[in-house]
Amino acid sequence: MRVLVVEDSQSLADVLVEGLRDQGMAVDAAHDGLAAAAKLDLNSYDVVVLDRDLPGIHGDALCQMITDRSDRAMVLMLTAAGAPGDDHDRAGRGGAGRDAGVHAGERDALDTREDGRALRLVEVDDRSDLADV
User: Fold this and answer.
1) What does the pLDDT read at residue 62?
2) What is the pLDDT of residue 83?
3) Would you list the domain boundaries of the chain?
4) Which of 1, 52, 56, 73: disulfide with 45, CB 3.0–4.6 Å?
């Protein structure tokens, strides 16, 4: 399985990459949206672990790019937003809350909460009626 980890926190990205490699996965990492877009253009991935609040290109826009691809990957979207409607966006871009990514083309597959944090596995859904993110 080939995985792309897109996370601007170097320490978190390192932990994710190490854990996935320990499980036998081929893992690439990108620390901003521009680097992630370049890797997506060069390689085909089975899974993208995607932070929403990225410098360069926002995670929602990257998710839309994945939606538009013919070789769509599964997306595990990470966010600091803790609840639906939570406007937390550490980069100060006026985030639209935890559920905004759903409007970027993904469909919920898992929502697990522990200690007030959300883990969401989403599958990119090919929808032509998406609003601009």
Assistant:
1) 95
2) 52
3) 2-124
4) 73
Q: Using one digit for the tens of pLDDT, what is the confidence trace for 4-60? A: 999 999 999 999 999 999 999 999 999 999 999 999 999 999 999 999 999 999 999
How far apart CA 3 and CA 44 sit, in angstroms, is 9
The CATH superfamily holding the domain 2-124 is: Response regulator (3.40.50.2300)
